[in-house]
Structure formats: C-alpha cells, structure tokens
Write a structure and sequence with these properties.
heterodimer, A: alpha+beta, Alpha-Beta Plaits, four-stranded antiparallel β-sheet, 4 helices, globular, B: TIM Barrel, 7 strands, 40% helix
Chain lengths: 106, 200
C-alpha cells in the first residue's frame, strides 16, 4: 500500500449571522449541499472533514485540494449564508490569520 | 505552505476583484467585509452620502456631473426597448429572452450583462445546475456579441457576500478564466467612467 498522503486545504468559514451556531449541523448541511450539487461520489472522494471547534463563529473544514473548487461553490450556494474568509494549506496558519487579520470579526 | 485566498491575492494583486451588486445599506460593514474577502471594488445602490471608493448603481443618468462613480442599471429587459434610456448594464434573469433581444439588435455595444448569484443561491440543485449551464452559454454569447459579462453576488446583507476566491471557483465551473474576467471587467469599468470624467 502506498504511504502517500493527498494534499488537503483548510477552509475558514465565518458564520456570524447565526447567534449560536451548531457546527455539526452546519457541517452536515455543507455535506448535503455538496452531494446535491456534485453527487455523492464526488462528495465522498473530497474527504470533507470538520476540524475541532475552537472559535464560536469560525468553522474550519478541510477537503482534498483537487475538490476545493467544488466545496467553495457549494459554500456559495448554501443556506444559511456562510462566508468563506480564508483558505490555507495549514490549519495553524489559518488559525493564526483568524487571530490577527480577522480579529475584528470575533 | 500557505495557499488559498492569501496566496492568490498576492499572485493576482494587479487584478482588482470586483463585486458590483451589494444591496446592504451599512457601507461601513460592507467595506470592512469586502476588505476581508479580498474584494477591491464594490457597487451599491445609490445613497445620499457619496463615497468615492464605491460605484453606485442608479436607475437614471444624473443630469449634472457627479464626483462619484456610477453605472446606469436596467433591472429588466423591457427597459432596453426605450431609445432614450441607455443603461450601462442590464441585470439578466431570463437568458432566452435576453438572447432574442440582442439578436434583434436592441442593445448598444459594450453593454454589460449582469448575473446575480443571489437569484439562485437558495434554489434546489437541479436549478443551480441549469444556472451553471446558462452562465457558461451566456459568457460565450457575451464574448461573441461584444457585451461585457458580469458576475455579482447580489448580496442583500454582508452575510451573503461572496469572497473573491469563491467567485473564481464559480467562474472555473462556467469555463470563465478568472484573470481574463477581472481584467476585462476593470477595463470595461474604466471605459464607462470616461464620459463622466470628461464632463466634469
């Protein structure tokens, strides 16, 4: 078995319009919308994952780099409206930027 | 390795990212969010206070010279029939109707055809799929007919605003090269602005 990991991208999603956002249910709605728009197979091979919750209004999900555009399109066509604030190859850099550049949103 | 919005903004810093239709009236919030989403130029409905950094959408051409940038917008195709009304851009909702209008020559060259993401944002998957096909066709059509294609968020609030990278992802699915799109749009905006400046 090849021990080669695929590249992932981390997407920072801001859900400031919701008072008390439930990250799990929002993540499920992202999966559902992605499956609806691009099919179940594509959604599965995108390997979309939800990162551990650290900030109330920031949801971090990750996916395979090849499927990044599909996920971004799904996020743009989602209800409730979510804002993609950042995309990074490293979750640490995404969190750091959230703490500095996006401090005004927190 | 840092990728995504920050990296893209560095690579494409010479291209201005433009969203010409944001309907939120709180301009302070809109500007703040636009900056975070890497949107350089925004367009909003005209309000009493003038902000030089914003392109205002107006329904009629102002009779006097203005110190703000504006675009005359037709919200439906029927307005194009009137010979006296010369909009800069028309908001497209019915694609087939628009094509027949343009084939009949009821338009002026370099008019912009604007599509709003908000029109389809919350629709079911099959309608979104059809919308993507129509956008692909409309882009090709606008290239052939000398019109400017514009993709805008149509956001009713800051929470519906779309980041520059999401715009580009949507474009890629519609076979629109993002760089070409941003360049063409900036050039077109410059051309629309020229008469206002020369009158001033």
């Amino acid at each position: 078995m090849l021990n080669r990991r695929y590249k992932r991208r981390y997407i920072g999603i801001y859900c400031g319009s919701l008072l008390n956002p439930d990250h799990r249910s929002i993540f499920q709605s992202i999966l559902d919308r992605n499956s609806e728009l691009f099919g179940y197979v594509s959604s599965q091979v995108s390997y979309i994952k939800l990162a551990k919750k650290e900030h109330n209004h920031l949801i971090i999900i990750s996916c395979r780099t090849e499927n990044l555009d599909e996920i971004l399109v799904s996020l743009s066509f989602l209800q409730p409206g979510l804002i993609v604030v950042d995309v990074s190859g490293s979750i640490h850099k995404l969190k750091n930027r959230w703490a500095t550049q996006y401090a005004s949103l927190q | 390795m840092v990728t995504g919005i920050s990296n893209n903004s560095r690579q494409d810093s010479k291209f201005k990212k433009i969203d010409l239709c944001i309907r939120d009236t709180n301009m302070l919030n809109v500007r703040k969010m636009a900056k975070l989403l890497n949107i350089d130029v925004i367009g909003c409905p005209y309000q009493e206070q003038n902000d030089k950094g914003i392109i205002y959408r107006v329904n009629e051409r102002p009779s006097t010279t203005t110190d703000y940038r504006y675009l005359v917008v037709a919200n439906n195709l029927e307005q194009l029939i009137s010979s006296s009304f010369q909009p800069n851009l028309v908001v497209v909702k019915d694609f087939e109707k628009l094509k027949s209008f343009i084939r009949k020559g009821k338009y002026r060259s370099r008019i912009a055809l604007e599509v709003l993401i908000s029109d389809i944002r919350y629709q079911e998957g099959s309608k979104v799929g059809k919308w993507f096909r129509e956008i692909t066709d409309l882009y090709r059509f606008s290239k052939r007919s000398g019109c400017q294609f514009i993709l805008s968020s149509g956001a009713n609030s800051v929470w519906e605003m779309v980041s520059a990278q999401c715009f580009e992802s949507i474009m890629k699915f519609c076979k629109i090269p993002p760089r070409t799109y941003w360049e063409d749009l900036e050039e077109w905006l410059g051309l629309q602005d020229r008469p206002r400046i020369s009158h001033a």
